[in-house]
TrEMBL record:
Its cofactor is FAD. Keywords: FAD, Flavoprotein, Isomerase. One of its GO terms (molecular function) is UDP-galactopyranose mutase activity. Coiled coil: none annotated. Belongs to the UDP-galactopyranose/dTDP-fucopyranose mutase family. This is UDP-galactopyranose mutase. Pfam families: GLF, NAD_binding_8. It comes from Deinococcus sonorensis. It is an enzyme of class 5 (isomerase). Residues 154-350 form the UDP-galactopyranose mutase C-terminal domain. Gene3D superfamilies: NAD(P)-binding Rossmann-like Domain. The gene is glf. Its EC number is 5.4.99.9. The lineage of its organism: Bacteria, Thermotogati, Deinococcota, Deinococci, Deinococcales.
Length: 377
């Protein structure tokens, strides 16, 4: 069923109730469109979903989600649906038996090597160990050309091989470029203008977004089970793009994770929100939610992340051959006038939450413009 919705039908069928789907549902409902949003999971929020565990600690079942953005438009938009708790994320890396700040900064280098450099001496130090490359192409190039091979080996090589199952030399520069290097003592993981967590959690924020008489929510439902008998006019698809097309050109690689959640009988487990383990153990990092959410509780819950090739699709894998394969699917997607692909999985982009919100808001604008009658200003 596609064109001409029946009186009982929906204008939009939205597949996926994560950020991409929820923002579009909210925007479309606000202009009078009737929306059905379906998710095959038993909850809304996509990977940003949070809930209270058995001990009563607010956890992120799909790994720690820290909101940060430089976009006032995105922050203002989400502020309609939640109050915020200011939070600046800090990360330590376990290297050579020490816990040192990550991203690499002045304190990291001084602590690691037992030095007492100042910022300009650190700049000279980086320049002396950096290995210049003609063109920064890979995730190895980005780091080695800035801080040299020893810091690269200690902080990036092992972590990246664990996280992606690939050597940094096999990944686009954009992956490790997410984590900068600093000569200052700024030990925040992010430097964005807006850094805050939804005061009552992500799920409450999603509930507020979807709380509209024009929006119906259907959980535990694969869209393929209903798309042919519930009438709709246009589909917004936010799942993996290759799955939409039945993997007709082969599977796009998405990296997955296994999460091991633990609740501990103590108020605090570690000094900061996340500790990274670039070189030891099968897991990449351990995050303690109470740092991130600000919750007071006499127990604490933590999550260990174990990267895997199989499982729910979490990360697109940025490398040239995957971009080529994605392009073939994207070309087919372009041909479909009644389906729009949005979000991290459907556009195969390693996007943060704020980038997905921005992409969804831009998509809404485009859909609105396409609907406006020709010649009308
Ligand atoms: P998703 O949230 O994946 O939503 C897609 C939804 O579609 C899913 O709920 C899925 O069940 C549903 N779906 C798929 N196929 C079907 C189908 N056939 N039928 C019905 N439903 C279907 N971003 C940050 O900004 N800060 C962070 O700290 C951060 N940490 C992260 C940590 C981890 C471990 C991961 C994996 C991601 C993290 N992100 C973070 C990224 C963030 O999760 C994404 O940017 C965002 O959630 C993507 O939203 P989305 O709507 O595109 O996709
Ligand atoms: N990275 C690393 N060592 C670290 C942190 C990050 O090598 O201590 C690399 C790794 O390849 C990782 C990428 O940088 O996948 C991006 O890190 P980020 O913390 O942004 O990952 P995410 O939170 O998206 O999983």
């Amino acid at each position: 069923m596609t064109e001409a919705s029946s009186p009982q039908g929906f204008d939009y069928l939205i597949v996926g109730a994560g950020f991409a789907g929820a923002v579009l549902a909210e925007r479309l409902a606000s202009v009078g469109q009737r929306v059905l949003i379906v998710d095959k999971r038993p909850h809304i929020g996509g990977n940003a979903y949070d809930r209270y565990d058995d001990a009563g600690v607010l956890i992120h079942p799909y790994g720690p989600h820290i909101f940060h953005t430089n976009s006032k438009a995105v922050f203002d938009y989400l502020s309609q649906f939640t109050q915020w708790r200011p939070y600046q994320h800090r990360v330590l890396a376990s290297v050579d038996g020490q816990l040192v700040p990550m991203p690499i900064n002045l304190d990291t280098v001084n602590q690691l090597y037992g030095l007492s450099l100042n910022a300009s001496q650190l700049e000279d130090y980086f320049a002396s160990v950096a290995e210049p490359v003609e063109q920064v192409r890979t995730s190895e190039d980005v780091v080695v050309s800035k801080v040299g091979r020893d810091l690269y080996n200690k902080f990036f090589r092992g972590y990246t091989r664990k996280q992606w199952g690939l050597d940094p030399s096999e990944l686009d520069a954009s992956v490790t470029a997410r984590v900068p290097t600093r000569t200052s003592r700024d030990n925040r993981y992010f430097q964005d203008t807006y850094q805050a967590m939804p005061l009552h959690g992500y799920t409450r924020m999603f509930e507020a977004m979807l709380n509209h008489p024009n929006i119906s929510v259907m959980l535990n439902t694969d869209y393929r089970a209903i798309e042919t008998f519930i009438p709709w006019r246009h589909m917004i698809y936010t799942g993996p793009i290759d799955a939409y097309f039945g993997h007709r050109y082969g599977r796009l690689p998405y990296r997955s994770l296994e999460f091991e959640h633990r609740t501990l009988p103590q108020a605090q487990f570690q000094a900061v929100g996340t500790v990274n383990f670039p070189n030891d153990y099968a897991y990449t990092r351990v995050s303690e939610f109470k740092h991130i959410t600000g919750q007071q509780h006499d127990q604490t819950s933590v999550v260990y992340e174990y990267p895997t090739a199989e499982g729910d699709p979490y990360y697109p894998v940025p490398r040239p051959e995957n971009a080529e394969l994605y392009k073939r699917y994207a070309a087919d997607a372009e041909q479909l006038t009644n389906v729009t692909f949005v979000g991290r999985l459907a556009t195969y982009r390693y996007y943060n939450m704020d980038q997905v919100v921005a992409q969804a808001l831009a998509t809404f604008q485009r859909l609105q413009e396409a609907q406006a009658p020709a010649g009308v200003e």
